[in-house]
Design brief:
Layout (H helix, E strand, L loop, with lengths): L4 E13 L5 E14 L3 E5 L6 H8 L7 E6 L2 E2 L9 E4 L11 H11 L4 H14 L15 H13 L5 E5 L7 H16 L3 E5 L3 H7 L2 E6 L2 E7 H5 L16 H13 L14 H14 L24
Parallel strand pairs: 3-8, 3-9, 6-7, 7-8
Antiparallel strand pairs: 1-2, 1-4, 4-5, 9-10
Helix pairs in contact: 2-3
The structure holds adenosine-5'-triphosphate and magnesium ion.
The site of magnesium ion (MG) has 3 residues, from helix 1.
């Protein structure tokens, strides 16, 4: 069990001091956290709540004021353990005049990876992050989303056991966001552990097993996402093959009354905007020249208020 404990913090505290050594800001206050092998853990909180500070403490880039942090059972200050960690920072720090291949080769050398393995891994990663067609272009020419992709490839070059992602979906379009989320889930499927910070709560809900919410350096809540967001007061029932009608409503009201409850709503469930967006783009790719037409001009029912002109 102890071996499966990847990250542990004990009463971890960071107080930033000013130039004169006077206490300035308690960025993190007595954080107790445990992250286990194979889970996707989300660290949430408003701006300035201590997320990046926590990550930097785990990487040994900052020293705690008090308390302890361990990664793979080793003190966080021991930088050798970072060879088993992949890190995607919030701000890109990659060299703008290297291309994707050169970037990965550069980081592969920093990790002292064998040249053969380095080359093979770089080629695989470029493919995996969808940059095969742009691998010879310098990063200066990359869009924000493309920089995010190469940043992720860089974070994975050492085949890390723990992947730390600070705002992984920031700057990505919905297709890129879906891709990033699938990749994070794929990392878990490969037995990796992921710690991510994000302000995009729907992304966190889609991929994270457990989350912690920080506010002003204090841990506010911690637990399984599914349990935390469960509405234990309501019961959801879905059906197909029936038409909505006054009679159906009356019947359902009677059923729920019999069981001591009340019917709140009845209607058609809506899919998410993400699902709609992905479906529209898929259909656009499949049918070039497709355009939106106002409903009165359209008689195609494939999509709500959209049709093909070919
Ligand atoms: N080098 C520093 N010196 C002084 N105060 C700092 C320093 N770095 C961070 N802080 C302060 O510590 C607090 C936590 O900052 P941190 O960067 O950890 O927040 P965050 O949760 O990552 O926020 P964001 O969502 O904006 O990225 C903030 O009040 C910030 O101003
Ligand atoms: Mg931050």
């Amino acid at each position: 069990m102890a071996e499966d404990l990847i990250v542990e913090t004990r009463s971890l505290t960071k107080i930033y001091r000013d130039f004169w050594g006077r206490k300035k800001k308690t960025a993190l206050n007595a954080l107790d956290l445990k992250i286990y092998r194979g889970e996707i853990f989300g660290l949430l909180g408003p701006n300035g709540s201590g997320k990046t500070t926590t990550i930097k403490l785990l990487l040994g880039l900052l020293f705690p004021t008090s308390g302890d942090a361990f990664v793979f059972g080793e003190p966080a200050a021991k930088v050798e353990k970072n060879e088993r960690i992949g890190y995607l920072p919030e701000e890109s720090y990659l060299y703008r005049f290297l291309n994707a291949e050169e970037t990965l080769d550069f980081y592969g050398r920093l990790f002292n990876i064998d040249p053969e393995v380095r080359k093979k891994r770089a080629a695989e990663l470029i493919e995996r992050v969808g940059l095969a067609n742009d691998k010879k272009r310098i990063l200066k020419e990359y869009s924000k989303g493309m920089r995010q992709r190469i940043g992720l490839a860089q974070a994975l070059i050492n085949d890390p056991e723990l992947v730390i992602l600070d705002e992984p979906t920031s700057g990505l379009d919905p297709l890129g966001t879906r891709w990033m989320k699938d990749l994070i889930l794929d990392l878990r499927a490969r037995g990796k552990t992921v710690l991510m910070c994000s302000h995009r709560l729907e992304d966190v809900q889609d991929v994270c097993d457990r989350i912690a919410i920080l506010y002003n350096g204090d841990l506010q809540t911690l637990g399984k996402v599914s349990t935390l967001v469960e509405d234990a007061v309501r019961v959801e029932v879905r059906a197909r093959g029936v038409k909505e009608s006054a009679e159906l409503r009356a019947d359902l009201e009677a059923v729920f009354r019999k069981h001591g409850g009340t019917l709140e709503t009845i209607g058609h469930p809506s899919s998410t905007l993400e699902e709609l967006f992905l479906r529209v783009i898929e259909e656009s790719k499949a049918r070039p020249g497709r355009r939106y037409l106002p409903p009165e001009e359209s008689n195609a029912a494939a999509l709500p208020a959209a049709t093909a002109r070919s």
